[in-house]
Amino acid sequence: MLGLKLRLLAGVVVVATALALIAAAPSAGTPSSSPRFHAPVVIPGSSGGSEPFVALANGVIRYVTWQSPGQFATSTDGIHYTKVATPDESADGDTSDAVDASGAVYDAQICGGATSLHTCLWRSTDRGAHWTLQNNFADNHPGASDRPWIDVYPKHTSGTWNPDKTTVYLEYHTFSPEDLAYVTVSHDGGKTFSTPVFITSDPAAINSSFCNTVPGGVVVNQNSPKTVYALWLSGNDSQSNTSTGCNYSQIGPFDKAWVSASYDGGTTWTSHLAWQGAFDPTTKIGDNANKIFGTIALDGGGQVHVVVPVRKHDDTTTFAATGQESPEPTVLLLATSPDRGVHWTKPTVVSKTNGSYFFPWITAGGGTGRLDAVFYRSSTLKPNAASSLWYLAFSQITNARATLSHGAAVYAAPPNVVELVVDPQPAHKGGICTFGLFCSAVNGNRNLADSISIATDREGQANLVWTNDYPNGTSRILFACQNGGPTVIAGVSRQECTDPDDPTP
Known about the structure:
This protein is mainly beta. The chain is built from five helices and 33 strands.
């Protein structure tokens, strides 16, 4: 996150001055009913990379990208990767990707060159061999934009598809002048985008989000293409946000998750509160979901799911001022909406151990209430401690079925969670700072940057991509695909990553 990089560093130093006063070991065994994964592979050419993202074409051709700038590698079997062309060597990263029904790959990231500090969109129609700049001002916003997320429609079709007719949804937040969340829309494959639409539409959302937002993704209902959802985190209120440095410090704490829904293809949006944590307005101590990012997915039954990584009783201002943090757990909380984002269940804990869970990303399957999640996990209760060991882990969540009862969303039964460590080797030793550029002001460890990714193939098997810098601090991108056990498509299980029947999109 925070692809503005060094261009905003001077502003961060000012904020830092103003605020100056103010590992789990791997599980012993994996049940036979659990998903199983191929041994992790290192993506070629990824040395020094971070914030990877994975997208699939036709359900099987993997595209892995990482920053900075956004670079790409592809694989048809999930094991052997080939590095392909880089869209823009001068770009600043924060990459996000999607693939449409024609097999065209879309890449959004912070621009380089003349439109630096804005969001650019590239498209490749030949598996990443060549990239055409479709739009170098996709955010259409006068202020600096940051952390773009995209989704596209359609991703599947019974016949051929012209990518010039693909709809692209772009979510981002700004750093100036108001630091809020927006969505722009393209109906011509990214060539042109609409004027930015303000998605923090509710008065309570505006007050909570003022100058302090963290976008968490945009998803399109492939069965109802004008139905779109966008997630963001916010602080508690405008006064607390401004007193802790707004987006420039990321101190927060971020104690609310909002989902804005559009039912007309992104023209109008309505905000709904999906989760709210505890917050003390006097001490500014609260439940903090900015263990980046909040993440959103839409399952095959039309339910919307949000997962947030919440550090309990997080005293962010004391840590920013002194570098000291009290021991507190960071849990994964799941909330589900059965009625298109309007009502949300009470959050349920879907993390299985006492420790810290960071960087979750989720994807949903063809069945109702079936999710996969990837994240970093540690036994530490002090996530900035230099001694902490972090592992790449995975959860499969089933039975997350919600219904409406007397005007409230409730789970029909408690969701089931199977959790396992994917890689027995640590991914990282040390702290994980989630203050963005402000990490440099508090000597926080930001080697892993801010995000990792997951996608499912057409059989529902999980494809995971993450940053690993263990043991010497030099980062590279790792990938692992599921090769056995249950998938998010109920009853489907394969024993190999490779698919010899892979059709060319």
